[in-house]
# Entry
Amino acid sequence: MDVVREVEKILWPKPLKLFTAGPVACFPEVLEAMRMQMVSHRSREYQEIHRDTVLRLKAFLEAEKSVVLLIPSSGTGFMEASIRNAVSPRGKVLVTIIGEFGNRYREVVERNGRIPVVLEKPLGKPVLPEELDDALKKNPDVEAVTITHNETSTGVLNPLRELAKVAKERDKLVFVDAVSSMGAADIRVDEWKLDLVFTSSQKAFGIPPGLAMAAVSEEVFERAKKIPERGLYFDLLEIREFLEKQWSTPTTPPIPQIIGLNVILKVIERMGGKGVWLKMYAERAEKIRRGVLELGLQLFAEPGYYSPTITVVYNPPGVKGPVIYEEMRKRGIEIAKGYGRVKDVTFRIGHMGYITDRDIEELFKTLREVLVSLGCKIPGK
Ligand SMILES: Cc1ncc(COP(=O)(O)O)c(C=O)c1O
# Structure
C-alpha cells in the first residue's frame, strides 16, 4: 500500500532501536492486536474487552477496593482530574517536587485555582518520609499530597510505600503520578492506601500513547460529590457511572490502546505474572546501570533510589549530551536527551517497553564506540 509506505518513509527512514523516555517500543503482540478493525464502543463485544482489561489491571495493581478507570487522555489528564474532583476550590495541596514532573503537578494545582504548598528536594534526591511528615506537621490544612513515584527527568524512584504511609497517618488524600513507574515498579494500591494513582499507556506497559489508566479510591468519589464544578471531560463521577452501567466511557475511548493493554496484561500473565514481570524490569535496569558504570560514566540519581525505567547519566567531561544523542542516532539507537533543569548536564537511557538482551548489548557497544569517537577515556582501555 503506497500511502502507508509514504508515511513509513517519513517516520522510519531507517531502523532505530528505542531507549526512549516514552513513547517506547511496543511489544509485537500489542502492535499486531492493534491492527484489528474497529468495533463500536457501545457494543457488547467492546464492553467485554473493557471489562476484562479493567479486571486484569485491578489485579495487577492489587486494587480490589478501588475503581480502575481507563480514559482517552495522556497521563496529565488524571493530574488535572485529581485536583478538580477531589480538592475543594481554593483548597491547599502539598506538592512534593523532585524534578520536572513534580513541577507540572504544582502547575496543574495552580491553574485549577487551588493552592500548592511545595516540598522540593535538590535534583537527584528523593523525598524522605520524615521530610514529608515534617511538611505535613507544618501544614495541617492541606487536603492532599502529590507524589511523583518515578521522576523521569532525574531517574529517581521515590519511596512511595513509606511516603503514602506518612500521608495517610495524617489523613491526607494521596495522589500518585506513576506515569513512568506503573508496570515496572511495585504498586499495591489497597495495601498502601493510594487514593488516585495514574499512568499513561506509552510507558512501562509498552503500548502506543492515547490511553490513561488510574486506580481511584472511594474517598475521591465522595469528595467529588461535594465539588460542583468538576468540568466535563474529567468528571470522575460521570466516568465511573459509565463504567458501572456499561463497561465503557462517556466519550469515545482509544479502542486500539485498550486492546493493546488487554494483550500486554495477558502477556504478563503468561510470562508468570506480576512478580516475574517486575523482576524482568529490575534486572534490565540493573544491567543498564552496570553498563553505564563500566564505561566510566556517572549516574545522576542518589544510590538506593534508582529508577527501574530510566537511567539518567552525567555527561562525560567536555561532551554535550545532545551530541551523544545525535551520534547514537546516526548509528541506529535512539536514547533520550536530558530533560528540564538538568538537560545540559545529563543524557538519559530509557528502558521501558519492548527491549531484548541483544538490544542492550548493541546499546553499549554503540555507546562505547560513540564515546571513544568523542575522545572520552574509557576505563580499562
Ligand atoms: C513522571 C511523569 N509524569 C507525567 C508525565 C506526562 O505524561 P503524559 O505525557 O502521558 O501526559 C510524564 C511524561 O513523560 C512523566 O514521565
